[in-house]
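Most newcomers find our protein records easier to grasp once they have seen one. To make this concrete, we reproduce a full record directly below:

===
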Amino acid sequence: MANSPEVVADKIGPEPSPGAPAAQKGDYLIVRPKSGSAWRWRQVTGGTPAQAEVRLASGSSETVKPADYLVIKK
């Protein structure tokens, strides 16, 4: 689309920030994709300020760093 305006990421939503408050157990996150472009919703099951443990759709879990997620406010 030659006439399409350029989409600027910060106009769509905020970028994750390493200085953001840590996720707490029970919080919901939007997690940066490891591949592809689809960000995924995850629920925090535990962790520390340096990383959050999240539940995957398969039932397994993984850890993500604050620079790779946004906390969804309740």
